[in-house]
User: Which sequence fits this backbone?
């Protein structure tokens, strides 16, 4: 009786062993599972990377849009204080008669004269320090009465160069030529000539001496490539339906028979067409994310980087005509 029991126990053990072996995974099954898992994980990683790229693009685009809007607001506020706006700012780059210290390769986009107020008593000179019969004394008296001078402001656009601090397609530079380097001592800025002095006017202004020395600073980077055509057909000529000569395109080289070839330009009301009235200007500015990471690519570029537009009416005017 003992032998059959032993044989039965061995049989049961063999059955359990075979059953446990048959419930495991084969090598082929493991390889298939690994391949499927790799495909799923790769797909998930791809989605995560694309989401990160999209987030980066949106972040860069949003920052660029805000920078362009701040730059547009700054320029608009600057022009509102102007008293004379040039219809052809390129004359400022004529070295023989105008500004000699403009950045090389920069294109003048806007040029105008604006009042520069003297806000503190410390900036005003003491006239008793000069003999009362001299022109310096008279200049001092006029300055203390006006408490302001006229400054020449030029906005320029320069393309990307070797300067690693400015990686954008182009940038806008603000140039300012003030009357005094130190108003308290009546120290004149090299090259400055007062546009209200005898024999001088705003539109025919030329520098004094052989060179100028103004202040330059970058207003904004990541402005779009100046040579990229915009889908705007002669916008300045269509602003006034009564006369196509009312507004001039600045810079002049931006206008062709079909499109505008620049990312920063303006339409300036002709002073001749609006004699004695306030000049106004339409400004157009377009940014670019190129160089900042997260480039949009050619397909989304036109729709994702629209041109900012604004109209600016100058408050100041020379020889105001009440009828205008």
Assistant:
């Amino acid at each position: 009786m003992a032998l059959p029991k032993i044989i039965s126990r061995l049989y049961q053990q063999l059955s359990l062993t075979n059953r446990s072996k048959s419930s495991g995974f084969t090598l082929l099954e493991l390889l298939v599972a690994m391949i499927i898992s790799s495909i799923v994980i790769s797909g998930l990683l791809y989605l995560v990377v694309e989401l990160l790229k999209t987030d980066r693009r949106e972040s860069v685009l949003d920052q660029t849009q805000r920078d362009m809007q701040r730059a547009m607001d700054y320029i608009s506020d600057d022009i509102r204080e102007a008293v004379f706006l040039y219809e052809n700012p390129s004359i400022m780059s004529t070295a023989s008669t105008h500004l000699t210290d403009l950045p090389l390769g920069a294109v003048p986009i806007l040029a105008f004269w604006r009042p520069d107020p003297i806000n503190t008593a410390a900036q005003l000179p003491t006239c008793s320090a000069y003999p009362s019969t001299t022109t310096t004394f008279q200049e001092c008296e006029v300055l203390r009465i006006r408490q302001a001078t006229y400054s020449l402001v030029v906005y320029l656009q320069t393309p990307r160069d070797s300067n690693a601090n400015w990686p954008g397609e182009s940038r806008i530079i603000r140039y300012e030529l003030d009357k005094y380097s130190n108003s308290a001592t009546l120290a004149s800025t090299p090259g400055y000539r007062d546009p209200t002095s005898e024999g001088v006017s705003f539109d025919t202004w030329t520098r004094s001496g052989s060179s100028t020395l103004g202040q330059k600073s970058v207003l904004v980077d990541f402005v779009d490539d100046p040579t990229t055509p915009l889908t705007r057909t002669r916008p300045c000529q269509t602003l006034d339906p009564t006369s196509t000569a009312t507004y001039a395109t600045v810079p002049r080289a931006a206008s062709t028979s079909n499109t505008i070839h620049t990312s920063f330009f303006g339409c300036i009301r002709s002073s001749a067409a609006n004699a004695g009235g306030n000049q106004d200007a339409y400004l157009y500015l377009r940014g670019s994310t190129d160089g900042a990471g997260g480039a949009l690519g050619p397909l989304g570029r036109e729709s994702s980087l629209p041109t900012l537009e604004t109209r600016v009416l100058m408050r100041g005017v020379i020889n105001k005509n009440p009828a205008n």
Observations:
- The CA atoms of residues 71 and 220 lie 6 Å apart.
